UniProtKB/TrEMBL annotation:
Residues 513-678 form the Dynein heavy chain AAA module D4 domain. InterPro entries: DHC, DYNC2H1-like_lid, DYNC2H1_AAA_dom, Dynein_heavy_chain_D4_dom, P-loop_NTPase. This is Dynein heavy chain AAA module D4 domain-containing protein. SUPFAM superfamilies: P-loop containing nucleoside triphosphate hydrolases. GO terms for molecular function: dynein intermediate chain binding; dynein light intermediate chain binding. Pfam families: AAA_7, AAA_8, DYN_lid, DYNC2H1_AAA_dom. Belongs to the dynein heavy chain family. Gene3D superfamilies: 1.20.920.30, P-loop containing nucleotide triphosphate hydrolases.
Amino acid sequence: NFLFETHDLRFASPATVSRMGMIFLSDEDMDVRRVVNKWLTTQPEEHRMSLSNWIDEFFFRALDHVKGLEFVVDTTLVGTVLNGLSQLAGVESRGAFVCGLVRGLGGNLAQAERVAFAKLVFNWANERPPDMGAPLDCFWSGHSFEAFVTERFLVSNHDTEGFDPESVVPTVSVKRTLALMEPWIAQSEPFILVGPEGCGKHMMIMHAFGQRRGTGVTTLHCNAQTTAEHVITKIAATCSLFSSPEGRVYRPRDCERLVLYLKDLNLPRPDMYNTCMLIAFLQQLLTYGGFYDENLEFLRIERIQIVASMNAATTVGRHALSTRFTANVRIGTLDYPERQELSTVYDTFLESAFKTDPDVAAERFAQPSERGRLAALMVDIYAEVRQKFPLDDARHYLFTPRDLTAWVSGLLRYDLAVEPLAEVFAYECARLFRDRLISAEAEQRFDSVATGLMRPFFKTAASLSGVMYSALADGGAKAKAGGHPKLEKISEEDYKGVVKQGMMYYEREEKDLHILLFPEVLEHIARVDRILSRPGGHMFLIGSAGVGRRTAVTLAAYMLGQQFFAPAVTRDFDEKAFSTELKAAVQCAGVDGERCVLYVEDHVFTVSAILEIINSLMSAGEVPGLYTHEELEPLLAPLKELMMEEGTHRTPYDFFVSRVKKNLHVCLSMDPRNPAFLMR
């Protein structure tokens, strides 16, 4: 007897269906009360009566209202019910129940609808939040509703000295999201955080689990080619197999509880039948608590929590998740912080950054009001750029709060006791935003916006063009010695002399470059050297053939003492051939610890999988499946002693990945006239 279970008959053959009996289970036949009653039996007996009364009073009414709204992530009725109930576990008071109901049933709604829903629930309960304009921004303290308050300090997710760009500032929206995640983390429930690019999903997940003892996080950066095999490899690398009466079981190796964090979960591409192998496998892990290995032995998993983050499915390259999977996970949505909140965050970041340079702090920005104004100026410029240069104008006009973080980090690359802050501030601003613009007219519009906002603050008109800062002012001596040289101001004439000398040495050792050093070429090389001299700096160069992109990168890399790798494309070049070419660059960066550049042009992308490999390398510092287990053992052996000396990583592989992220610079070079450009 064959028994099939499916949620969709779109791809079922009529010949098959006509030969089978069929039972249709509809959402309308679903008795939600039975689901709720089953959940109530899992709650402490002393709370059941009060929970049952509040559920009858508010829950079903709220559920009926939410069912008529549009969800951010498509899910089922039972999935919505379980999302709502997940926030009510262990609730002992009416106020806490109201807060939990708003977070649970409103978790999968867009921001505006969530606010409207929260007001409605408070109204039904005859309760009043501290601020009726922001009903989401409060919690139940035990006797009353209290508003979340922004705190001005940094919580670092890493043991680093100085400024950590991945730090968290406990703002209202951060506390709101942490309150949403708290019950899911406490109960080890699988959940997905959904939000736009750069809104802080990864940072908040790492922060939330970083606060808990005995909890380890292993991250899998998904791409279009990610499969179940990559998840199994990750589990095998971080867990050990134990024998138990029920069979063999995977348990975390170095911690009490392991979080398997899948970043960009909706990037893996579904097949022709709209099934994604990765999602189907995760659903199996959640439903059956294990998987079959290649010998058809069922291996269970214990103390492993599955957590994911993703952009909404409306974003390019993203795919809708199966409702069979989303019904089994909890869902929470995020949005970008408000402008005022961004100003607070970057005021705190600037304070931390300037502490590493006491001369600047003592000069002007020891005054919190001045620092706050500088942060507000940064946010104003960012907001204006987002408004004036929308994504509709060009696909790469994606400006996010990450750019503001990069701006703060960038300021630390200059000797601010010597260089005027107004000039450095304007130069970093131009490199982050102006360099992305596609026309001279767009650059002029940007210049007028940025200088208009900067002039009142700095009382001077800092130039956004014609200024050069370089890590090669000393001829690249510090960079070649393995240090992180500061960017120093250099005149065009002096820079021309430095580059001319570097070119002479390069041509003597390698080959003739055949370039004239006119101002535009020098500017281009200066921009390239700014990125290559920064640990983990990657570049995306857009331009027509023959404008000198490869020459500039080759010369800058040589002068900075970095090795240059460019894949040699052959007739049957595919992802396997690319992976073989890639290994040389990855080993140079990860094993030898040398800085190097991987230069990849349009013609290398013979198959889309190669672009996904590059994407994974830039975001994670690793490519799942690049090395077999047998290849990794001898590769990582020389790193064990170095890792013990540094003492900051749990495994040699983690140490290897961190070195790749720091030392390997990926440079993508594309021609916008290529028909495939928009799809990439």
